[in-house]
Amino acid sequence: MKEKETFRKKMKKMLKLQKQSERRKRSKVIREQLFEDKDFLASKRVMLYVSRGTGEVETGRIITKALNRGKKVVLPVTSVREKEIRPAIFKNSRQGMKKGPYGIYEPKISKVVKPVNVKDIDLVIVPGLAFDRKNNRLGHGQGYYDGFLKKLPIDTPKIGLGFRFQLLKKIPTAGHDVSLTKVITN
Fold this sequence. Notes:
Number of strands: 11
Strand order of the largest sheet: 3-2-1-6-9-11
Order of helices and strands: HHHEHEEEEEEEHEEE
Number of helices: 5
Distance between the termini: 29 Å
CATH class: Alpha Beta
Strand content: 15-25%
Shape: globular
Number of domains: 1
CATH architecture: 3-Layer(aba) Sandwich
């Protein structure tokens, strides 16, 4: 869909142009809102994403604080062959990170780390380039997250994190797109 690609280019440019100091300041406000969210507070196993190098809402401190609060943190690992993301437990920073096939950081996986069953995830924090007021999400266009979100139990909360400029009046959607439960912005 050409309209989606136009939105993607525009949002990637806006994310890239945002000053690092602004991104940090806005990310902190969003992080604080997330930590007060009832779905986050109730969750025991939360799936997050690593924002390092993407220009999106910074998630490093969210991951650390979730671990410090005793939550099990799950991060996506990309499987290009199966065209899917697989949730994997992230224990701590000693586990290490590596760049995945699309340049997005993901945990290093060893044979002792077992994949997480999607039914065991209480909350999913979802990345996105843009969101709209109906909680629709515009991703990077590969379909990995939409495919993953469809596997979740219907009552699993899905929260998008975005800067105010990423929240649009309406974004184009298709039948395979999965809407979120809510979007937290600053």
